[in-house]
Structures are given as structure tokens and as C-alpha cells.
Specification:
Blueprint (H helix, E strand, L loop, with lengths): L5 E9 L9 H4 L14 H5 L5 E9 L2 E6 L2 E6 L4 H7 L4 E2 L7 E2 L11 E4 L2 E4 L10 E3 L2 H4 L8 E7 L21 E6 L12 H4 L9 H15 L3 E6 L6 H14 L6 E6 L6 H10 L3 E5 L5 H8 L4 H22 L4 E8 L6 H14 L4 E6 L14 H13 L4 E6 L2 E3 L4
Parallel strand pairs: 3-9, 5-6, 11-12, 12-13, 13-14, 14-15, 15-16, 16-17
Antiparallel strand pairs: 1-2, 3-4, 7-8, 7-9, 10-11, 17-18
The chain binds FE2/S2 (inorganic) cluster (FES).
The site of FE2/S2 (inorganic) cluster has 13 residues, from loops.
């Protein structure tokens, strides 16, 4: 008599009592459905109502054969390509440089984890492993392919971002466009109050090459007749090869001196050599969010629970501000954003953030962002106009000379 063995697999389940049938996991998440779930977890991260969970289920063991870098391997059926690679001892890391495969977003947006599957680039984190697949992970082979990632929502922008100089921002709410922007999908953070979650977590789109995205943004620039082109997200810096080529392509397509290339980032994966590469490629403006000064605040805002990882990310944010100011002040425009809500941080910490930024450069442009209820933090109360006036005064008292506040009534600009 034959024995039946079982393996434990992760499978997504919907918590019916929480699900409001918004359809996000069905229409925006690239998912084969619960019946064919491979446990990638992207629906769990994406669901704004936290109605998806991963459960361990036991299933009869059925193996599939994959050829990985030319060698045959057997893995249980029901895994993603990434899980299969992990199972045969590939080292996976969230931050770049820490393993064989870097997986910052894990939701199919950034394509940093892309490997060759049957000859085509595919994001390993969400691609189901199937019988007979030929998988190539070797960097020398992967780099021969043009990088890809998901980018969408090419559009005109009336106020720009934190890296847009204040003197270009409209004094009255919305009367002209000053910038065009596109949005990269996927983020390494898990902010419960993500202000752009529909883009961050959606993965059901066709990926673009850097040139395709640069061409679309250039055409959008022509349509809106502006000089500034921005990439935001999600987090645009996650896929370094893609972003550097995108910036280079934008520079090639926009040779006029007025063209500005602006990157809006949380800066948690940026390093000095990466920043240098972006500047060399053509980046002219950068907006950096600093999500707190204290580690607990950073973890509260970003939803990152691993203290060591959070510590590294927070350091990278602050190091980016200092590095860009020290090396590129006057050459690259830098603006800093502070996500503000009283639930995130006290006025005392806000003052400390302002003091630290002022010690780097008192004329640094700093924009306090009034975080509204969004995504999984619908209980937040958007700061009132009067509260944001107080925030502005605290930041100015800390020594900063150029403070902007985003408020429910539009931006309050510096007096200068
Ligand atoms: S980690 Fe796989 S797409 Fe971002």
C-alpha cells in the first residue's frame, strides 16, 4: 500500500466578516485566485480592510521539476518561483546587496526580484512555479535583458511634490499645472496610512521598459506644456537598474535646458553611490520623506516591524538628506517632506526633526504633509488648518527658514 505524505503550504483566505467586496484583490492584484493560490501574500499586503490572511494548509505532497540555472530541482507544487528558489538555498534579502535575490516590495510592482522564466523576465515573488519551468537567476544573464517595472498614472500635477521648489507652487489652489508625474508600483514600506495605496499595491498591469516610461512621461510633458517631470510611487528607487536607465532616457528625450527630472522618494534604499549614479544620469531634483527621528515613530508610520531593518532604513533616509545637501547643494534641488499627524509624532519630536534638518542646512525646503485617513488608517483625523499653522511655527522655531505646509485649504508657502 502506498503512503501519502503531506506538505504545509501557505494559502490566502478571505475573512468574510471583514471583506467589503471592494474588488481590489480581484481586479488590481495579479493573482491566479484562491483556488490556485501560491502563497505569495500580495493580496494580504494590498487589502485595505485586512480581510486576507495566509494560512498554513496541509496538502498531499506533489512535486514539480524545475530547471534552475541548468540544474534539475524538485520542489513541492504550490510555491512561487521565489519560494522555490529559497527552498533550494538561495539567499533572499529585502534591502539591496544582502542576498542572491533582492525582494523589496514582494507585491509584484518593482520587479527587482525578476529572474528569467522560460526566457522572459518575470517577478519571482508573485510568479507561480510550474512543472518544467526553465529559471535563470544568474546576474550576468538577467542584465542582458532590458529591465522592467510597473509604472502608471502619467498625469499633470498642479502642486508637485516635496521636491518641487516652493516658488513654483501655486499661491491659490489649483489653477495651472506645474509638473507631470508618473507613479512606480511597489514599495518596501508597509505604511498603514499609505496615501497612494491603489498604485503601491496594484500589480495587474503590463510592465514598462525605462525608455517606454520615459517616452510616455515626455509626451505627457508636451501635452501639459511644463518643464518638470517627476516619478513618484509606490517607491521609484527600488529597482536601481530600471530607474537609472529611466532617468538617462528622460535626459536623452528632453535635451532642452529647462527640463527638470525629479525623483520623489522615501530614500530608505538610497546610498551615496546610488545617488551619484542618479545625478550622473540626469536627476536634477529630489524630494525625500523623513518619517520620524525616533525609531519607534519610523516603525509606527511605516509598519516595519523588524527593528534592525527599520533602523537601517531610517539611517538611509537621514543620510540621503545630508549627502545630497553636502555634495549637491545648489546643483540638485532637494526638498524634504515630513508626514505629520498627531497620531504619528509629538510636537516635541517635530521640533527635534526641524532642529536636525536645520543643523544640516537651515535653508533646506521642508514641507509638512497633513496625512489624511487612508488605506488601513481610516481612523486618522486629518490635521486641521489651525493645527498645520502650529506645525509650521514649530518647524520655523526650530531654525528652518523655508517651511511649507500642506493643509486642507492648500499649501501655506514660506513668507520669503
Ligand atoms: S519584490 Fe518582486 S516585484 Fe518587487
Amino acid at each position: 500500500m502506498l503512503s501519502v505524505f503531506f506538505v504545509k503550504l501557505l494559502k490566502a483566505k478571505t475573512l468574510r466578516e471583514r471583506c467589503v467586496k471592494c474588488g481590489f484583490c480581484t481586479y488590481y492584484v495579479n493573482c491566479p485566485g484562491e483556488e490556485d493560490c501560491h502563497g505569495c501574500g500580495s493580496c494580504v499586503d494590498a487589502c485595505p480592510y485586512e480581510a486576507k490572511v495566509l494560512l498554513k494548509v496541509e496538502v498531499p505532497d506533489r512535486y514539480i521539476t524545475l530547471r534552475i540555472n541548468g540544474e534539475k530541482h524538485q520542489v513541492p507544487r504550490g510555491f512561487t518561483v521565489l519560494k522555490a528558489l529559497e527552498l533550494i538555498d538561495f539567499k533572499i534579502s529585502r534591502l539591496p546587496g544582502g542576498g542572491d535575490i533582492c525582494t523589496p516590495c514582494m507585491t509584484g510592482g518593482c520587479w527587482s526580484c525578476a529572474v528569467l522564466v522560460n526566457g522572459s523576465l518575470k517577478p519571482s515573488c508573485i510568479t507561480p512555479a510550474r512543472e518544467g519551468m526553465e529559471i535563470v537567476t544568474r546576474a550576468d544573464e538577467v542584465v542582458k535583458r532590458t529591465p522592467l517595472r510597473l509604472v502608471s498614472s502619467f498625469q499633470g500635477h498642479p502642486v508637485g511634490g516635496v521636491g518641487t521648489p516652493y516658488w513654483l507652487k501655486p499661491k491659490e489652489p489649483f489653477y495651472r499645472y506645474i509638473e507631470v508625474a508618473c507613479f512606480a508600483h511597489g514599495c518596501i514600506l508597509r505604511c498603514p496610512s499609505c496615501q497612494n495605496w491603489e498604485i503601491t499595491y496594484s500589480s495587474n498591469e503590463d510592465p514598462l521598459t525605462p525608455f517606454q516610461a520615459a517616452y510616455l512621461l515626455t509626451e505627457t510633458r508636451r501635452l501639459y506644456n511644463v518643464d518638470r517631470m517627476a516619478i513618484s510611487g509606490g517607491e521609484p528607487t527600488l529597482n536601481r537598474r530600471w530607474l537609472v536607465e529611466f532617468v538617462r532616457s528622460l535626459k536623452t528625450l528632453n535635451v532642452d535646458e529647462r527640463a527638470r527630472i525629479h525623483i520623489d522618494t522615501n530614500a530608505v534604499v538610497l546610498t551615496p553611490d546610488y545617488i551619484d549614479e542618479l545625478v550622473e544620469a540626469g536627476m536634477t531634483d529630489i524630494g525625500v520623506d523623513v518619517k520620524g527621528l525616533r525609531l519607534e515613530t519610523f516603525m509606527r508610520i511605516t509598519g516595519i516591524r523588524d527593528r534592525e531593518l527599520a533602523k537601517k532604513m531610517l539611517e538611509n533616509e537621514w543620510n540621503t538628506v545630508k549627502y545630497v545637501v553636502d555634495k549637491y547643494w545648489g546643483k540638485v534641488f532637494i526638498g524634504v517632506g515630513i508626514p505629520y499627524n498627531r497620531v504619528f509624532m509629538s510636537f516635541e519630536e517635530l521640533y527635534e526633526i526641524g532642529s536636525r534638518l536645520a543643523s544640516i542646512e537651515p535653508n533646506l525646503q521642508v514641507c509638512a504633509l497633513d496625512y489624511r485617513p487612508e488605506f488601513r488608517a481610516r481612523h486618522l483625523r486629518r490635521p486641521s488648518f489651525e493645527e498645520m499653522l502650529k506645525v509650521k511655527k514649530i518647524l520655523e522655531d526650530s531654525g528652518l527658514k523655508v517651511v511649507i505646509c500642506q493643509t486642507v485649504r492648500g499649501h501655506i508657502l514660506p513668507a520669503t
